[in-house]
Amino acid sequence: MTISLVKGQKVDLTKGNAGLTKVVVGLGWDPADAGRSFFGFKKAKANIDCDASALMLDAHGKLVSDKHLICFYNLKSPCRSVVHTGDNITGDGDGDDEQIIVDLNRVPAEVERILVVVNIYNCEARRQDFGMIQSAFIRVFDPSSNNELVRFNLTDNYAGKTALITGELYRHQGEWKFNAIGEGTHAPHIDILARQYT
Predict the structure, then answer these.
(1) Using CA atoms, how far apart are residues 198 and 195, in angstroms rounded to an integer?
(2) What is the pLDDT along the chain (198 residues), one digit of tens a residue?
(3) What is the distance between the alpha carbons of residues 81 and 66, in angstroms, rounded to a whole number?
(4) Which of 99, 123, 154, 183 is most buried, by the most CB atoms less than 10 A from its CB?
(5) Cα(170)–Cα(172) distance, rounded to whole angstroms?
């Protein structure tokens, strides 16, 4: 059974889910309707390329190394415990637009948190922000059973924001938990956002 989260809510992933060793973090979004023109014709939706990324952070909230930023240009962590399945450049269609696989048992002991974020690629040149996105969500599911564990719909108004800190997987007393964050911020590129954690 899926647990639907609200902003700031935390939930156990591994406690009570015996044998859960791998999860998939799925992220989805759609371009918002552009409305109608002066003549009543429906405007085309904006072509927005959102990029999901994972930052592997230590106990002090710092990025373990540059190689622990998992994104469209670095699809695997050095230990291969976190793997990005690839870039989706349109956000069209139902379901997850991008996925990040996390092998919980292989995550190095120095990694306390895996922060999941989304940026808009080339947002400054295209003059795009998250006010142009709708139906955004983050979910975590068990790939062995396809059972969705948690879902967090990002319903705040993110107009003017160019990056979203969606949620995080984190260790707590030997178990893995999920925190629904849902904060918008300004970072025109994932590298700029990652600098906040170095």
Answers:
(1) 5
(2) 678 999 999 999 999 888 899 999 999 988 876 544 445 554 445 678 889 999 999 999 999 999 999 999 999 999 999 999 986 654 455 689 999 999 999 999 999 999 999 998 888 888 999 988 888 999 999 999 999 999 999 989 999 999 999 999 999 999 999 999 999 999 989 999 999 999
(3) 15
(4) 154
(5) 7
Domains of the chain: 3-34+47-195 (2.60.60.30)
The dihedral of CA 122, 128, 132, 137: what is its sign? positive
- Judge contact between 66 and 78, C-beta under 8 A: no
Euclidean distance between CA atoms 156 and 131, whole angstroms = 10
Closest CA to 107 of 53, 152, 68, 72: 68
From the list 93, 101, 83, the residue with the least C-alpha distance to 25 is: 101
Phi and psi at 131, nearest 5°, equal -70, -15
Q: Residues with Cβ < 8 Å from 60, sequence gap 6 or more?
A: none
Instruction: Write the CA distances from 46 to 30, 34, 35, 93, integer angstroms.
Output: 10, 7, 11, 14
Tokens of 123: 């947002």
Q: Which residues pair with 95 in a beta bridge?
A: none
Amino acid at 44: A
